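Hey,

Quick one before I head out. I ran the complex with magnesium ion overnight. Inputs first:
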Amino acid sequence: MIELQSISKRFPDGTAALIDISLSIPRGSIYGIIGRSGAGKSTLLRLINGLERPSAGEVVVDEAPLSTLDATGLRRLRQRIGMIFQSFGLLANRNIADNVALPLELAGVPKAERTARCAELLARVGIADKADIYPAHLSGGQRQRVGIARALATRPDILLCDEATSALDPQTTRSVLALLADLNREMNLTIVLITHEMEVVRAICDHVAVLDQARLIEAGRADTVLSGSREQATLALLGEER
Ligand SMILES: Nc1ncnc2c1ncn2[C@@H]1O[C@H](COP(=O)(O)OP(=O)(O)OP(=O)(O)O)[C@@H](O)[C@H]1O
Ligand SMILES: [Mg+2]
């Protein structure tokens, strides 16, 4: 369970990126955070993995307030959290297997174990045959599968996705979202998924929060918000669906 308690984030230049946000993300859910560019979505995600600290309020992960964690505690928290990005973030000079193995190397996992785990992960995300290839030779969808494999290498129980499908065509988006939904079920993985597309929410989210200009407009079960919202910001996002 991830809880944001009256979170605000103001940057040193005075930008208020988040204003008084309270949100409960249940364990095992696929929780969508939707909003326009600049709404504060990425900032919110960085608060959950402790990369940013709130200016006010508290982030609590499984009863542990992040502000009480020391360096070791924060490191342990980050080991429980995987992250994937729109730009994939793969290293061009490492082949696919070595990209996936990187977090395991950093965690000091022995070579034989790394190799076995990589093979298992690449098979799970459907690109077992790409282990020796370099990122430049993969399609966008395949690159995101590598990103997912790498994010899951250390067996996290939370996966944060920042516009993970925004660079992909609709069909590839659907296949990557289907993979995320399968992983959510199989591993009881809590997925927090940022998007600006209501279609993505509709495809896999069980809950959704709508952010607009640093504020939380509404949050709740996805079917309820999608079918019954009367909020202008939500209706505008619904109106943009392809
Ligand atoms: N380090 C920073 N310093 C100052 N302002 C920042 C910083 N990071 C983000 N911002 C500002 O905070 C606001 C929210 O940014 P954020 O990146 O969270 O938005 P977003 O919803 O993820 O947008 P996008 O959909 O374009 O990725 C924006 O106005 C942005 O310019
Ligand atoms: Mg962003």
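The first strand starts at residue 2 and ends at 10.

Talk tomorrow,
K.
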